[in-house]
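Figure 2 data, in text form.
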Amino acid sequence: GGPRFDGDTEFEIGSITKVFTALLLADMALKGEVALDDPVERYLPAGAPMPRDGEGQQITLRHLSLQTSGLPRLPDNMPFGDPADPYADYTEQMLLDFLGKYQLPRAVGAHYEYSNLGVGLLGYVLARAAGTDYASLVRERILDPLGMKDTAIALDPAMQARLAVPHDEYLRVTRPWNLSVLAGAGALRSTASDMLTFAEAAMDPASPIAEAMALTLSDRTDQVGTDNQTALGWMILPAPGGEVLNHSGGTGGYRSHLAVQPGTRRAVIGLTNSAAEPSAADLAFHALIGSPVAAEAATPAAPAPVPEREEVRLSPEQLAPLVGTYRMANNARLAITLEDGQLFAQLTSQPAFPIFAEGPRAFFWKVVDARLVFTGEGDTITGVTLYQNGAEVPFERID
């Protein structure tokens, strides 16, 4: 059901937004408002620190756009209050708090690692440097000069009426995303018509973005183990007919892919309103260079909904003894932290999620059907057991 899609249907374009953020960086560098090798710390609020590597090297604007900063894909202090809109509750203060305590795992610039955090941070500091917000900056520098009237972060009522209904990988209706402080990583919404206008401008040496476009492509890093490169904002793929400049996007219920081949003056934008396969990238590359499309996969069965459990309110004094680090037999860790009266649980290599009490020692997640039960005598907690998918996984306390 619903209206048929056309060139004016709105979709979230997710991480294709990173190309726009790179063009903002290039435009501001060309105008002398920033320099590519300026330290990011220069544009943070006074006194807000940025992590440095073991040699004291600072992360620059260039590192953020090339994805060589050493920052992780996501910060570990995202609250995930609404799993269907995971970035919405992430605030400027949370971002600054994370940057103030994060330790880089390697030298700045050492190698490529894709980071939504890094490019979201880039959008944030560029807007600060320009004395405005990200949405206004991208509107002033790119969207208005190119006449992209149907591209925005916040849609007006007429655009909202044309927004495709998003669906998850199980083809269940889900909700659009809101990226707040990390808008530069993936907040834009657009149409096929507007994105082809953008693609044409990206190949036109006389377009309003031509100089910025050239600068984004002038600085490249190799993606180890492939023939691909990363430029400022763009992924670059070698192909018959010349290199393909491209970027994918994915939010909760949308997939997108922009592929531009200047050598043949051809471009494709793929936009879908579901997270199901085949991906928008498969379809876009097939249309542009004839690469094979992955077989259409059967829609997987949706998981059972997370059961609703009754929450019990516990005081910070009751929660404090549970805080600590726990280890399971394979050495995976579970960190339990307490922030502003809310308990969080973080498994190795996963974000921290809030957990909620159903008793003095029993807790549950709202994002997944899983429980934690702590063990010990009195205020001395010695371990915790994870109950999930019919399994019981014990952890022992190590601090």
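Caption note: Residues 256 and 271 are 4 Å apart (CA to CA).
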